[in-house]
Amino acid sequence: MRVLMEIGQSSQPLTLAELSRRLALGKATVRRFLLSLEEMGYVERDVRGAYMGGPELGKLAPRTQMRVHAAVASALRDLAGETQTAISLGVLSGREVLYLWREPPGSAAGVALGEGARLPAHATAIGKVLLSQLPQPRVEEIYADVPPEAFTSRTIASLPLLLGALQEIRRQGWALSDGELEEGLTAAAVPVYDRDGSVRWGLNASSAGHRMAPAVFATDVVPALLRAAGRIGALEG
After folding, report:
1. Is 128 left (phi over 0), alpha (psi -120 to 50) or beta?
2. Whole-model pTM above 0.85?
3. Would the pLDDT of 62 be above 60?
4. % of the chain exceeding 90 in pLDDT
5. How confident is the model at residue 64 (pLDDT cuts 50, 70, 90)?
6. Is-contact 125 108, C-beta < 8 A?
7. Cα dihedral sign for 191, 199, 171, 93?
8. CB neighbours of 204 closer than 8 A, spacing ≥ 6?
């Protein structure tokens, strides 16, 4: 229970070393607890291997997920105004993106987006940019049992194609999704790094109803996302 309380009350994922220090317990002991909790779905790991609340913990206390610092939220609102798009912040949670923040409110594929919302990683720009930060064997493990699901005719619905796309995303440093989750929904996303170079979040901009062409995202929105990611990473680093 103490492990769950530390994770649930933390504003960001916690590493094994951080949990060991906070609990005044040896790493081997804490690791055993975490392995059991992860197997039961009460905790899960982000792209850095740090621990956060899992779906089963969310059922016990829906508001235990990470909260976004006020300074970060302010920077995200500024970005939404600058780009005239909907801005989201999220983390990778297995095969899904767990959304932490969105401005303005909205929905995608019938899901109301905001704190605690989840969407399939392979069909979203933010999910693909976070998946691209994982080693290829880890991605293969995630989709080993069930291949990526097709939501539209543009969805990347096979593991080999997904791996190829992630390689390109890793090379260019950002991801685009054009009608892959929902027809008419276009989005771009970039990773947000800590000062130590670890990925903390994915930062996403989206526009529905063909309001903004994919080419405009690449030339105008992505540079703004990259600038904002640098500022946000420094705020939270």
Report:
1. alpha
2. no
3. no
4. 48
5. very low
6. no
7. negative
8. 87, 88, 89, 90, 124, 125, 126, 187, 188, 189
CATH of the domain at 46: 1.10.10.10
**Residues 31 and 49 both lie in one domain:** yes
Among 64, 90, 115, the domain boundary falls at 64
- CA separation for the pair 192, 151 (Å, rounded): 27
What pLDDT, on the 0 to 100 scale, is given for residue 200? 85
What tokens does 209 get?
């109803």
Helix (H), strand (E), coil (C) string for 143-193: CCCCCCCCCCCCCCCCHHHHHHHHHHHHHHCCEEEECCCCCCCEEEEEEEE
Q: Looking at this protein, which amino acid is placed at residue 5? A: M
Residue pair 121/96 in contact (Cβ under 8 Å)? The answer is yes
User: Is pLDDT above 80 for 56?
Assistant: no
Q: SS3 for 53?
A: strand
Could you tell me if 50 and 83 lie in one domain? Answer: no
**Degrees to nearest 5, angle at CA 134 with 130 and 140:** 110
Q: Which residues of 38-66 are buried (b: 16+ CB within 10 A; e: fewer)?
A: eeeebbbbbbbebbbbbeebbeeeeebbb
